[in-house]
Design goal:
The chain has about 140 residues and is α+β, with helices and mostly antiparallel strands. The protein has helices at about 1-10, 15-20, 35-50, 125-130, and strands at about 20-25, 55, 60-65, 70-80, 100-115, 115-125. The protein has a single domain, classed as Roll (Nuclear Transport Factor 2, Chain: A). About 25% of the residues lie in helices and about 35% in strands. One of its GO terms (biological process) is polyketide metabolic process.
Length: about 140
């Protein structure tokens, strides 16, 4: 898991470095599960809005592994310096950068197969991020 989060931290957003299976399903970021391509696109757009996006994984707040699953609790930090495309139910078009920073707890549960993540469940504190970067009025 550390290698996958390191790849996210360094901005090397590809399936190999992130240890993502070609048939991965990612839950929790949108209303429908994301495929590999959709998840990589989501990451790229998020990195545009938050170029310094970083998962504090040295050390994780908590990491648990059992069988083929891992669960992590970490701190996710970033600075909103680019346009941010939010879910349609909040706003139909990207919002301008605020320049503000955020720091929130971040939870991820992954199921692994042959060294790759085949299923990921992400608990992203979108409301906390919106409030911390000064966009709480969209809620």
């Amino acid at each position: 898991m550390t290698e996958s989060d390191d790849a996210l931290n360094f901005g090397t957003l590809n399936a190999k470095n992130l240890h993502l299976d070609e048939n991965i399903a990612v839950y929790g970021l949108t209303e429908e599960p994301l495929s590999l391509i959709s998840y990589l696109n989501w990451l790229e757009h998020t990195r545009i809005a938050f170029p310094d996006l970083h998962v504090q994984n040295q050390p994780y707040r908590q990491i648990i592994g059992q069988g083929d699953c891992t669960a992590t609790i970490s701190v996710l930090i970033g600075t909103n310096t680019g346009p941010w495309g939010l879910p349609q139910y909040l706003t139909p078009s990207p919002v301008a950068a605020t320049g503000n920073k955020f720091s929130v707890l971040h939870y991820t549960i992954c199921r692994w197969q042959d060294g790759e993540i085949v299923e990921m469940r992400v608990n992203l504190d979108l409301l906390g991020i919106l409030n911390k970067v000064g966009l709480g009025d969209l809620i």
